[in-house]
Amino acid sequence: MDILRIGRSVENAIVEASMKNYWIALVLAACILGGCGGGDDDYAGPAVNSAEYQVTAPLGGSAFITYRNSSGGTEQVTAKLPWNYYLINPPTGTFLYVSAQSHSATTGVTVTLKTSGNVVKSATSSGAYGIATVSASCC
User: Fold this and answer.
1) Domain limits for position 22
2) What is the per-residue DSSP string for 92-129?
3) Are residues 119 and 62 part of one domain?
4) Across 29-38, 87-96, 119-128, least confident range
């Protein structure tokens, strides 16, 4: 009789553990599929200060790009367009700079500088192999 009682206690413990795991899985699935927080109406933009460099051209193509990187150094790249570079949470007053020269014999480039999702400055070159440059202090 004691063995039967122990067997039922173990069986009840297994059922209880299974139910707990079921509820945990159900809550996790609801959060993943439906979201645990508010809806899109609650979205207020980037949560941290950020800066973004964008280089675009009407027909794509490529450009020679010079920019201030997240370490404070200057980098130069040849990149296909559109091109983006992000600085996450740069210190207040950080100098931001990006310049691009089109590799196209027919169109220029547009260079845009954003902080926390908002356009701060934008410049567009015109004509063949045009250069556009923007700079600003951050955040």
Assistant:
1) 2-41
2) TT-EEEEEEEE--SS---EEEEEETTEEEEEEE--STT
3) yes
4) 29-38
- Residue corresponding to tokens 């139910």: 19
Instruction: Return left, alpha or beta for 71; rule: phi > 0 is left, psi -120 to 50 is alpha, else beta.
Output: alpha
Mean pLDDT within 2-22: 53
Q: What are 45-92's pLDDT values in tens digits?
A: 443 689 999 999 988 899 999 999 999 999 999 999 999 999 999 998
CATH code, domain carrying 131: 2.60.40.2880
Express each pLDDT in 97-109 by its tens digit: 999 999 988 889 9
100 near 129, Cβ under 8 Å? no
**Same-domain check for residues 77 and 116:** yes
Answer yes or no: do 103 and 129 share one domain.
yes
Instruction: Give yes or no: residues 19 and 72 share one domain.
Output: no
